[in-house]
Structure formats: structure tokens, C-alpha cells
């Protein structure tokens, strides 16, 4: 495969992983490579990153795809002399393991020796030693044999299950601090970070091995996590949730800047030509004074009704955090949460407090509530209509957040129609894919006939909606 073919496949893989790469940026990358050459792999990585990566949170996904298409090693860990290798099939993994004397069935003593070496490397913080041990761990403990040649697979789960680096943290601390391993939390965090780094190196090695057997395109499509703003709320992992929280404030700043710029461009009142001509009659047809059209209405109020049951808790958390980060774009924001009973939580969002901690507290209370009740949209809408009907006015936008799954209970559609009629505009954000609407106990179709229902599965869709809303 030529370098041009590899470049084209690499750019397509980045786009599939959620990185926005335009044709012009791809050409910029070619010019950068031509200027720097391809003799050094890290120079090639830097050239691609400088021309194709727009945001810092896209860098991890970029690095994963780059390592698949331009690997630093081949086979059992031989260094590559050239960026583009001949497309010859790799050596059978099982034969390589047997020839090197390594297999997934190493005895207890060999495993103990390996774990001791890993604990030492974690204590010393040696990245080269960790990388070497990660390659060895995949070779020795991660092989899953197939029935025929080329059918072998590699599993990072098998490696982590046998090596268990988390269990080696205390051993590494003991090697540094002696018996007193619990008195230095900063040192413990450093050792735990080494354990996370080892896990990342194992994952990278497994992807590299798989790419040699199945091809980088297949591995990139099935194993590389998409950009964080395209990860679905309902399937996000713990690490993804933390990255999403970090994205809320930058996203809010970008949205606020865009909204303010657009509002500023509309600030000048447009000329009312007809009224200007009429007014000029008093001065002999000379327009001494111009007339302008009335100002647009001022900022509106926003009322948010938020389902905080377990199935949509992550989605509700990020939506509320973003809305409150943008509350200066609205005249007033009031927030209500529910599982089967409605509660106002506007006062919980103190401008001096931490929105993430606020949402964590609300999520904890919601989990406690869900132990005693099941999601009931009809009851929640009815209680809101009875207790907070004055929250909706002709200047209020109503926003409902939830998956519309009401456990086959009464939907209170007449009540919802009254709420929609009382508000200026109404929207329903649903974190489920449209193909899952109206399945099981979903009432998306019924509620969608009353108010517009919008798919909102990730930060990108959420940001686009909130921008249009503000």
C-alpha cells in the first residue's frame, strides 16, 4: 500500500471516529508531511495533529487511530524502520507465542514474577519499562487461540484479569515507603496513575495486534471510542462522564459567544421604509427623520421539567448543567425534577456553587426516590399543573427532558396540552435514538403529537439545540 492510500484511509478513519476533517485540512496535512518528511514517526504524528486536530479532547482518539495506521512496532514488538510497511500477513500469533516460549498458560510462579516486575516499574514510574511489560503481558496472558491460522485474538480483559495492576498499588507503595503505605495520599495517586497508564498501554497493544490480523480499518471502526461530544449519554462510561463534565463549561462559553454575536448583529433596528416615506411628507418628501421597525422581544423565561430516573440521569445532569451555565441568555430559569413526584430545584443552582456537585447531590436524591417509586410522567405533569401552573406564561419556553417511558401508566395528555398552550414554545428532548421510540413502554409518539420531540443523544446535539433555544 502506498503512502497516499494509507493517508486517505487514515483520514476516513478519523472522520468515522467523529473528528471533523475537511478536504482542505487533508491537503494541508499532505503539504506538512512533504515539508517535514516521513523519516521520523513522531514528526509525522505532529504534522497530522497540527493540521487535522482542532480541539484538545479530540487528541486521544486521533492518537489511537494514528497508532493503528502507523504502528511503532510489528509482530511481537519489532521496531518499524519505515512508516509504510509491505502488506504481508503477520506471523501467526499462536506460533509466535509457542516459538518464544510464551503462552497464556504460564504457571503461577511466572505470573508472580511478572507482577513483581510490574510493581517495581509502577513504583519507579518508568514509562519505557511499563511499555515493555504491556507488550509482554499481551503476548503471555492476552492470547485467545482460534481454530485455524489467523483466527487468534487478543484480549485486554484477560490481561487485566490475570495481572490485576490495581492490586499492585499497595505493593509498589510498600517498596517506596516501607510498611507505612497509607500516610501519603499524593504518592498513592501517582502509583494509581501508573496503573491506569499500564492499562492504556495494554489496550493500545491489543489494538495494534488486532490491526495486524484484521486490518486497521476494522479495528478503528469497532474499538476506537468516538469523540467525547459524540458519545451517547445513555452508554457513557465513568471516564466518559468525567470528560463530559469538563466539556460543559467550554461548550457553554462557545454557545454564549455565538448567541451574543448573533444578537449583536441583530441589535440595529431595521428600517421601516413605508413609515419613513410617510413621515417625509411633512418635509416636502425629504426624509429628515427615519422610522424603524419595533425591537424584537426581550429575553424569555425558561422552565425545565427533568426526568432524573436512573435510565436518563446522565442525560438530565448534563442538560441541566448546560442550561444553568447559559442562564444569562434567559430572563429567568426555573428547574423541576421528577420520578413520579415533582420537585423544584432552582435554588440548588447557586452561582457560587459547583454545578457538578449540585447534580451529584440531585442524582443521589433521585436514586433514593426511585427506590420507592417508578417513573410516572402523567402524575408528574399533573402535580406540576396543580402546584406550579403560574410558572408558565406567554413569555415562557417549556423544556421537557426524558425518554418518555412511563411504565404503561396514564400519560395525562390533556394536562400536557394545557401546559403547552400556556407556554410560548415547548420542546421535548429525548436521549434515545429515534428507532427506539414507541417501543415497549415508550410514549414518544403520543407526547410527540402534543409538543415537538427532538432526539438529543450526545453533547453535539445538545449544544446545537441549546444554541437555537437561546
Count of the domains? 3
CATH architecture term of the largest domain: 3-Layer(aba) Sandwich
How would the global form be characterised? globular
CATH fold name of the largest domain: Rossmann fold
The description of the largest β-sheet is: 6 strands, mixed
| Helix count from the secondary structure assignment | 19
Strand elements, count: 10
User: What would you give as the CATH superfamily of the largest domain?
Assistant: von Willebrand factor, type A domain
Strand fraction equals: 5-15%
Label the structural class: alpha/beta
Task: Give the radius of gyration.
Answer: 29 Å
Give the low-confidence spans. Answer: 78-105
Summarize the structure in words.
The protein is an alpha/beta fold and 470 residues long. The chain folds into three domains: 3-70; 93-226, no CATH class; 241-267 and 298-469, von Willebrand factor, type A domain (Rossmann fold, 3-Layer(aba) Sandwich), CATH 3.40.50. It is built from 19 helices and ten strands. It has helices at 3-16, 23-36, 41-52, 59-69, 93-99, 108-124, 127-141, 156-163, 169-177, 185-214, 216-223, 238-265, 273-280, 313-325, 355-370, 377-387, 413-422, 444-448, 459-469; strands at residues 73-74, 78-79, 143-144, 153-154, 301-307, 332-338, 342-344, 396-401, 425-430, 453-455. Helix 18 links the parallel strand 9 and strand 10 (453-455). Helix 4 runs antiparallel to helix 11, helix 10 (185-214) crosses helix 11 and helix 12 (238-265) runs parallel beside helix 19 (459-469). The chain is globular. 32% of the residues are buried. Mean pLDDT is 79; it is low at 78-105.
